[in-house]
Inverse folding.
């Protein structure tokens, strides 16, 4: 009889646990995703926050999330490893950072191909190119979604850069891709790959004389405290992607897995437009910091673009990587179709 009453009591407690919100069983069902990225207080951060909120809403709270800006989850290579191992759920950044996973990710960094921010976004999202590009990480445990444009590339340096000849002898921080290094070499400078979070200290220590990156992210990352001169060139446009752990995605229901991937993709269009709207505000921040903000003259800009345009063919057309050889002409053709000037 005593045994019966104990079992009956346990059954009642278990039944109540299923009905009462906030119980251990319900807590176990809630999934928390960690989203890491190297920037903060910028469009990428806004995208990450909006993504987490949207996924929470669309899954009725089954998936929650936390954002970790400024590489709080580790340096970029460690975060990419975390995605592959399943210890980190999401990583948002330019695809060039993933060239160690697949060299073909650098195809999106081709210079001299796009007329403006919107043209670059349309081209990378062209249906002929996007599915092939986002599939590049699949064999290495990474699922890609949400391809969008962060900003055009500019130069910020400790000395003024007003013409092509001013690059001679400078050491410029770039991403660790072949096309990035060559694009500054053709101007007379040396490209030095440095982790984004280490750029400001590297400039302070005079390891490099400046950097080529987005004026938006640079303003938020305190670049104006160490570089007094900004030259806006927009010779190429910086893309961003959302990378997710396949190990983690496989733990989700088919419905929730689709919500994560589709939400990242849909919000990419919002993020690209939001990022473009940041540019004017960030230019004003650079000016308020005391930095000079300038552009090349029309003649210098024409010369600059003429040096960049052949580089895509030079590096990618006959590249030893078969996926690069396949993707590059597809992207070039997409850029022609998406040019609505």
């Amino acid at each position: 009889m005593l045994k019966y009453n104990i079992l009956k009591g346990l059954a009642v407690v278990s039944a109540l646990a299923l009905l009462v919100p906030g119980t251990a069983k319900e807590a176990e069902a809630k999934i928390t995703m960690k989203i890491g990225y190297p920037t903060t207080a910028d469009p990428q951060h806004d995208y990450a926050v909006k993504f987490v909120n949207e996924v929470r809403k669309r899954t009725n709270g089954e998936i929650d999330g936390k954002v970790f800006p400024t590489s709080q989850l580790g340096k970029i290579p460690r975060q990419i490893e975390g995605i592959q191992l399943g210890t980190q759920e999401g990583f948002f950044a330019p695809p060039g950072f993933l060239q160690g996973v697949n060299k073909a990710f650098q195809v999106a960094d081709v210079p001299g191909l796009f007329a403006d921010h919107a043209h670059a976004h349309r081209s990378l999202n062209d249906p002929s190119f996007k599915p092939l590009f986002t599939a590049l990480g699949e064999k290495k445990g990474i699922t890609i979604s949400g391809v969008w444009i962060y900003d055009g590339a500019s130069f910020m340096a400790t000395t003024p850069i007003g013409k092509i000849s001013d690059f001679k002898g400078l050491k410029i921080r770039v991403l660790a891709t072949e096309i990035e290094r060559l694009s500054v070499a053709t101007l007379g400078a040396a490209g030095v790959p440095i982790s984004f979070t280490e750029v400001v200290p590297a400039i302070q220590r005079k390891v490099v004389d400046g950097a080529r990156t987005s004026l938006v992210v640079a303003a938020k990352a305190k670049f104006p405290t160490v570089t007094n001169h900004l030259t806006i060139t927009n010779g190429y446009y910086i893309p961003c992607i959302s990378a997710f752990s396949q190990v983690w995605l496989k733990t989700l229901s088919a419905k929730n897995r689709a919500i994560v991937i589709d939400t990242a993709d849909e919000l990419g269009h919002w993020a690209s437009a939001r990022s473009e709207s940041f540019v004017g505000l960030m230019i004003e921040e650079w000016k308020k910091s005391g930095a000079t903000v300038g552009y090349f003259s029309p003649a210098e800009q024409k010369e600059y673009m003429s040096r960049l345009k052949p580089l895509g063919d030079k590096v990618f057309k006959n590249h030893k990587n078969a996926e690069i050889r396949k993707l590059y002409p597809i992207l070039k053709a997409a850029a022609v179709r998406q040019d609505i000037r």
